[in-house]
Amino acid sequence: MRVIPPGIKNILDKWNIRGLVILSLVFQTSLIFLAPLRKRTSKKLLTVALWTAYLLADWTANYAVAQITKNQGKEPEPGDPPKNKKLLALWAPFLLLHLGGPDTITALALEDNALWARHLFGLVSQALAGVYAVVQSMENELWPPILLLFITGVIKYTERTRALYAACLDKFKDRMLKPPDTGPNYAKLMEEYASRKDSNLPTDIVLIKEPDKHERPPKLVRPDRKYLTNLEIVQYGFKFFNTFKGLVVDLIFSFRERDESRDFFKELQPEEALRIIESELGFLYESMYTKTAILQTTPGTLSRIIAFGSLLSSFFVFHRRPLKSVEFHGADVVITYTLFIIGIALELASIVMFLLSDWTFAVLRKLKDDPVEKKSYIDSFLDRLLAFRKPRWTEHKCEGNRTHEVLTTPFLLRRWSGAIYGFNFIGYCLKAKVSRIHRKKQRNVLSEFLCDSVVSMFDYVMRSIKMLAGWIKNVNRSTRIVIKKWSKKNLMIRCTVYPLYIVFFSVIPWIFGKLWGYIDRIFSVKSHLDQFRFVSSEPLTMNQWEFIFNELKHKSDFAETPEIAKKVSSARGEWALRDTKVVEVERLMRYVENVDYDQSLLLWHIATELCFQEEEEKKKVMNRSGESCDDREFSKIVSDYMMYLLIMQPKLMSEVAGIGTIRFRDTLAEAERFFKGRHSKNRRDMRGASKTVLSVCNDIEPMNVKGDRSKSVLFDASMLAKELQRLDESGGSDDGADGKWRVLSKVWVELLSYAASHCEATEHVAQLSRGGELLNFVWLLMAHFGLADQFQINKGDARAKLVVGFKQCSRKL
């Protein structure tokens, strides 16, 4: 019995190789255009599409080569042209070319770079397989285009292997290490010292130090203009990328490099610093995930010229061959032309991307030694081209007729996602929609409305399913009790109805429940659904970045030594509280000093939300200054963002998360029980729920009532919120500013910077391939201001002088 009908089997036999070759070409085309988009967004749909194309591209090419090799050993089918196999042998180097992959993606994840040896083995094996396929069709008149295509394919595959090798973290670190420093010739100097001492000569060793850290190196002079040009932004980004890329592999830097960067960034406008860091992170992404770093070298450029020239030559040689339609099958000729034409078009597109990349501009035009030197025509032209990628800011009206500049760079011109995601604890407890504070563009209102409608509909369906499941569970429980009573009285029911009921209404639902549990554990279905339903998005605003920049800039003034820098970067709110000069600082200090970081995050997040909802209800903010409103909105956005990182991005917070998941679950369970008891859970009213939490008496601390077995911090956060509210009632800080929201905004910057500095560098780099995060920018900004652990070299070389009597014999140390 044949499973596949003969007609379909014949079609598959004739078109399997053709279909695989076309499919391989489709995957390559999709990769070259989809891959650059992943650094601009973190959308799951794009991630899934790119992941599928990346994995299937190699599999399809490998399988197609195997099929071509297998086909070469078969006898020709009746009706096939006699030389058709020789044309199929031409497709083998095309598939090797496809295995080389596009320039826009070499690694899907950072871990792929460590597999460079596997790709090297694949290069050798696939080249041998292609040669074997050609050898089987000996006396092939198409050997000139095949040979030229082999040159192109080998070069492309070699480029990919070299890119993976160069981006492997071990090799990346090896290339950055300086030559070994043996230090002074201690043995020789001590021999001379001992010989003179034995001769009873007055001898001593004097160590003359180099200028210490307080003697600054020459400053990196910025142009004497109000703003840097677009080209200068890229040039400075490339310069600092080459300096600070050692952060990825935990290398240390000298005080000279720290001072040069810190002095330069202190003179920048906040937007200029943002753009330079954008450019730096872009260079880091390209060096880790693309072929850009390889192609920008002289050997890489020459190899690309040779590869493209070989591809063009192969096409012309094949095109000039007469009688192709007679010697080969017509469909195969069309496919071959398609492979050539699309392959050449993709190479041209890659060349255009290569020429218009920031890396090309930075390498082509170096930074000028004299900042006041007049710009050349080339500089002006490149500056105009880079102006298209300049961040766009749009004024957005908020409550109180205030305006904020919101980042609204078009999607194809972005260097990162530009979004600040948020996850709200109370909103998640109540399954309520969290309203956005800012919207990117007015013309996106329709798309946002449609998206919100889809989310609302999905949320309604999920709640309906949950309610239905609860209703079925209650009915099932009641029915089971009734049937169990009947079965005790009636033997027939006990032998028939009761077993059927147990099987169909108890065992089968239990099996489906277990199956769903396994599926959820393997694929994290619930986590993805929660991310779709409860994660909000806010665009970055100019005032938010300015506040973060100015806070870190202020902290950098104190970080003169590595010890102080480490202390400042390790602050989790205590530095900010003391800096605000709040009278009740000691009452707030216990919420940051005596708690773990994950506990502090959850405490301050819930307290911020309680304060935010309280003022939403009273509308106090409408009568206050714009600055306090900025602090209020900033605190709310960063609070939700940090909770998003803790719950939805655990890898980024793995170094500081602690038992954050346990605390979150315990607090969630207590909040759900509390809201259910107060009939607030089904209302999805965040303001009313917040008011209910604040109404609970906190005269006695929760730990003194419940003990420390439960890790819930719900009512500890309520106590913190009340302490913060007292700041306004008591007049706030000494200078009369809005104490509560100013304190919260400063504390949240410190909590954010602590997470950024304690996140593994490899996780920062990994996040660049998923759209990037504000956390990555804060991490690099802290490094530029010297607020990092890597600046540990305080002293450089020195000179030791061997002093004998009144004569000095110097030896370099």
TrEMBL record:
User: Is Endoplasmic reticulum among the key words of this record?
Assistant: no
The segment(s) forming the DUF4220 domain are 51-427
Q: Keyword set for this entry?
A: Membrane, Transmembrane, Transmembrane helix
Q: Which parts pass through the membrane?
A: 20-37, 301-319, 334-356, 491-512
InterPro entries given for it? DUF4220, DUF594
Task: Provide the protein name.
Answer: DUF4220 domain-containing protein
The yes or no answer to whether the keyword Lipid biosynthesis is present is: no
Judging by the UniProt lineage, the source's domain of life is: Eukaryota
From which source organism is this entry? Eutrema salsugineum
Enumerate the Pfam families for this protein: DUF4220, DUF594
